[in-house]
Each structure stands twice: as C-alpha cells, then as structure tokens.
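Exercise 7.
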Amino acid sequence: MSKRIFRAMMGVTLTTLVVSVALFTAILFPYFEARLANELMNELAYISPNVEAEGAAWLEQLPKGENRLTLIDADGTVLFDSEADPAAMENHADRAEVRQALAEGTGQSSRYSETLAEKTINCAVRLSGGQVLRISSTQYSSMALLISMIQPVLLVLLFAALIAAAIAYRLSSRLTKPLNEIDLEHPQVNQAPYEELKPLLRRLHHQNRQIKEQIQQLKAQKEQFTAITDNMREGFLVLDPAGQVLSHNSSATLLLQPDRPLEGRSIRDIALDEEFLEEVQSAQAGEHSERVLPLHGRMCQLLANPVYEEDVLTGVVLVLLDVTEQHQREVLRREFSANVSHELKTPLTSIAGIAEIMKNGIIAPRDIPHFAGKIYDESQRLIQLVQDIIRISQLDENNILDAPVPVDLYGRAGQVLAQLEQPARDAGVTLALRGEEAVIQAVPAILDEMIHNLCENAIKYNRPGGSVTVTVRADAAHVTLEVADTGIGIAPEHQSRVFERFYRVDKSHSKEIGGTGLGLSIVKHGAAFHHAQVELESTLGRGTTVRLIFPEAAETA
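Solution. The predicted structure, written as tokens, is:
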C-alpha cells in the first residue's frame, strides 16, 4: 500500500511540475512577442521622421544593430536594407506588412522558419512620401526557447523530483504505519488511526463477534434447528419410513388443523385427503412428488421427498407451502385473459361483419360512409383497448422506462380539460378548474392518462346540464387532485369494485357510451406507481368525487 501511495504522490507531483513548466512557457512566449512588436513600433516612430526628412541617406549612416531596417518604395522596390543589397532583393509589394502599411498606415506580420526554429516579427509604417519603412526582429520559437533552457529546466525538475520523492516516502510511511499497527483481533472503534477507518473496524469487530456467536450456536444445533422450523411460514414434517410423525413445526399444525398433537401419530390419521396420502406414498416408494391441493379452505403445495442413508430409506420430509395468494392471482390472470379475449372479440366481430357485407356488395353506395365510420369507430375502440391493456401490463410489471420528473399538477389538469372541452360540450357538461399550482414528482404520460380517465368518466356518466369540477390543492405533506361530478353516482355495493379491470356498474349504459372498462384500473395502478392514495365518494343520483392524494410536493427551481 505504501508503494502505491508513493507512486501516486510522485506521479501527481511530477505531472504538476511538467504541466506548470509547459504552461509557463506557453503564457510567457506570446507576452514577449507582443512586447517585442510594441518596441519595434516605438522604434519606427523615432526613426520615421528622420527618414522622411533625409531619405535612405540617413539610414546608411546608422550603425548596424540587432534589428533589420528596410526602406521600400510605394511600388514594392527595395530602396535600402541594412543586411542585404537592395538591388539583389525581390519586389516586396506582396509582403503582408507592406500591403497593410500602404492600406492602413501601419502593418505587422510574423513569419516562422521551421529550419531555423525562429520567428521573424515585421513592423511597417507608411511615410508621407508613400514609401514604407519596415523594421524586423528575430526571436526564438517557444520550442526553441524551451530547448535552449533544457539543462536548467531538467536540473530544476530533477531537484524537485528528489524533494518530492523524499516527501512522498516520508508521508507514505507515516500514513501506512498506523494501519500496520491495528490489532485485528480487537479492532475497537476508538483505536482507529483515521476517522475514515472507523466503519471498517466496526465491521471487523462485528464480524469477530458474529464468528464467536456462530461457534457457540454450533454447540446447540438441535435447538437451533427447532427454533428455525418453528418460525418457518411453510409447514414442515419429518416422517419415519412407516409414516409416523417424528418432528414438525407450528406452521404444519396450523395448515393441517389436527384434532390433537401430531407428534407420534401416523400421517394417515391426520391427512384425510386421498391425494395428500398418494403423494406421501410416492415419497415412501422413493420418488420425489409435488402437487397443489386444497387443504381446509386453502390451496397448499405439497413437496414430499424421501430421505436415504446408504441407499436405505430412513424417512420422508414433507413441506407444505401456502400458495393461496398465488392461486388467486392465477385465477385473476385467467379471468383477465378471458375478459380481454371477449373485449377484443366484440369490435373484431363487428369490423369483420361490416367488412363482409361491404365485400359482398350488399350495402348501397350511399351507405358506405356510414358503415366505414362504424369500422373506424370499432377500430379506434380496439386500439384504445390494446393501449389500455399495454399500460395495465406495464404498471403491473413496474415496467415504466420514463423516470419521474417535477410536474405542475394544476397545469396538467388544465391541459387535460382543454382536450375534453368538445366531448363535454357535446354532452352538455360544464368543466371547471380550481386550486393552485402544485408540483409533484410524476411520469407525465401516466399522470395525464390518470387525469384524463377520471375526467372522461365524469363527463360520460354525467347528466345534461351537469358539471365536472377539478380541484388541485397542496399542503405541507400532500398534494390532492379532486375530480367531482354531478352525474348518476355509484351505488354503495359497486363502489369497492369500480377499480377492477373490465368492471362496469351498468353494462348496457357503458356499452352505449363506449370505453374499455380499464380506465379506473389504470388510475388505481398509476396511483400505486406514484405512491398516491385513491379515495372515492359517491351518492347514487347525486354525483361522484374521486381524489388522488400524492405524498408530497416537489421543490420547484
């Protein structure tokens, strides 16, 4: 561990040094370049008045310096150069700094030589006579500057690396020394050298204590086995080869409901069901058997396993599992499948019948739009049914891919009511929205569907001239959406079942107004998905109120 700490500290230190040197060089080089260009322009400002007064003759009498001076005519002809013969030099009219000076009065450019790793800074100024005076200076590139300083840079890096190595070695030793001195036999929390190690030492201490307890528990294995089986929800019985009860737990007693204690009795005297005895006999014959059978009003799964010792049957183990709930779910699933089949068959039969009539040419041409509308209506009903079934399945399996986000419940309710304005107007029902803004965590698509189903039902089962009022209110702990109508109401005996799938209070009326019978079931499952409560209040002939109570408001930005 100390080696890893040492390597990590050295890596961080050296990387920081190298990056700092590179950044230092990259920042300083443009700064020096700008300073040099500024100095060259200042020098031109001092020289240009003399050149305007005396021309090239004044330049010829200047001693040769570090910077190169060039006088260029307006047509690009070189009149003077401090380092070369003007007659041998090419025309400079195409030079960037010359063109800029002729156009703007001053010009500046830079040219880089990869061969010499040098960069030339050129500054030019236009004289009153139209001529251009240029001054040039050469500086090393940042890479060349860094290479020229490589020896002192390496020395600095080496010195810094040695200091970093010494510090890293010392720190890593100091960090790991307390860890090596921990007493793992007694890892008390107050001995932790670092605060971060307290959870680890606490777990070690807890594990040591668990190991000691397990060793002690092994000494009382029989008592432990009895305690475990007595606390099992599954019934557990051990029989000898003849079928006498050797051991059992309390769950077996509850499931078998014997008239007297089980211990020492024959299983034939306890289980009166012939199927139960058949499974026991199969196990006594050396076969594993398993069956679901009714037992005192409940459905139980019986597992019967033979126990062998050196190929000799020494007993039978019976396990009874209460699968009543699973059985009921399976019954509900079969009912759901049957209802789905029936609901799908109805629109499909209607569509097929109308299509067959149209195919045989029995329908008059003027009636075709009417029957086509019927096909369209039935297909839309079929599509809505499939969509509702898919949504119910997704909610059942908790297979919702969208994550909950902050949603304004009041705004969503307003959008849904806007979509239902035309159906409400056709039904002669007035819509109203009351309350205030309230933000909750929800999946928008599911929330919209819940609100839509509630409001749509309130419109469908209303009276002409009735009203639907949606109210949103929030307090410190809850956000409530309330949909109240003045419709036909729901009788008390139906109120507990209206959220079941495909359940309709008045099937004839429901058929007239349409719907899939899954709307309120989607509301119920959607509320469960959002951890919300559903409350229903209804008075027959006066109206219905449904409330969705969400657990808390979300924080708004």
